[in-house]
Amino acid sequence: MSELKEVANKQQRELSRSMEPLVQSHMTSGYDVATAEAGTGSHRRRVSLLEGHVRTEAPRMFAAAAKAIVERLTALRKDLGTQLEKDVVQASLGALLTAYVAETRVRKVESPTSTAAVRAQLCV
Q: 103-113, pLDDT tens digit by residue?
């Protein structure tokens, strides 16, 4: 289980880091236009251009980021589910085998050793 938690935490960190490049790619054109401004009042124009760019790009960039995160979370959920199912099945199988082996040992000890005794039990 701790292994699953570690995998989930690692994926969560990767998801958080994946937002930055996506936002950067959406903002690059706005930065390029803003940095081209020069001269008197250029700072105010740059700020205005960037604010306008953010207003128009924000819905698209965050929709794209959300879509990417949902896709990755869906894949993570599937992977974790598969691993968890595998771990539970392995643990259950191990418990069953242990119980079966113990039961078999008990029956061997209790079972009759002579052929005549086996025949007598079958006739009953």
A: 555 555 455 55
What pLDDT was estimated at residue 48?
A: 95
* Virtual torsion, Cα 54, 57, 63, 69, nearest 10 deg: -70
Number of domains the chain contains: 1
pTM given for the model: 0.52
Show the domain range for 90. 2-123
CB 53 within 8 A of CB 29: yes
Give percent above pLDDT 70 in the chain: 78
Distances (CA, A) of 5 to 1, 9, 76: 6, 6, 12
Task: Single out the residue of 80, 84, 32, 82 nearest to residue 53, CA to CA.
Answer: 32
